[in-house]
Amino acid sequence: MRSRTPADLAGRCPRCYLPTRLCLCAEVPRLETRTEYLVIRHNKEKEKSTNTARLAALALSQCQVLTYGAPGERFDASVLEGSDTWLLFPDSQPPASDAPPPRRLVVLDGNWGQARRMLQRMPVLRRMPGLALPPPPPNTRRLRRPPNPEGMSTLEAMAGAVALLEGEELARQLYALHELMIDRVLASRGRLGEEWQ
Hints:
Elements: E1 36-42, H1 53-59, E2 63-68, E3 85-88, E4 104-109, H2 112-121, H3 123-127, E5 130-131, H4 154-165, H5 168-188
Parallel strand pairs: 1-2, 1-4, 3-4, 3-5
């Protein structure tokens, strides 16, 4: 089933992109963080109602989302420069063992192929120290099937990073938001009980 929203957002919340009757906005926590989170979202993810980076940006006080790969628009990779900027990516270069935590964390948002291509096309990303996360438990609920067992949504990955950099309490709130989003998206597709009907 498609997850792209209508161009005019008819019947949908303009912030969370879910059908108005299932809007998540009142449930989104506002979390203050020390770390800045910079999400580089692939253009093809921008209009998908299942895009979880949108929710991360609503929840995290220091989260900015930039679009990569929009037709006719050149991405300015200079925004990624900074000595205390790390990359959240599975097989990135680990930081030195005595390195302080990053001031800013770059997160690639897209399917696996899109994220890999962004990494290949922006050399600055490959030079950054990286933050890798343990794989999610095998019974983790999904809206999209990941291409490998370590795959997770952007919101899940950011919750894992928040757990490491900010603490478990903030991370729990992001994980709970992810679960709630799954419930509401499934309800919008008629695949969850009648509670939202």
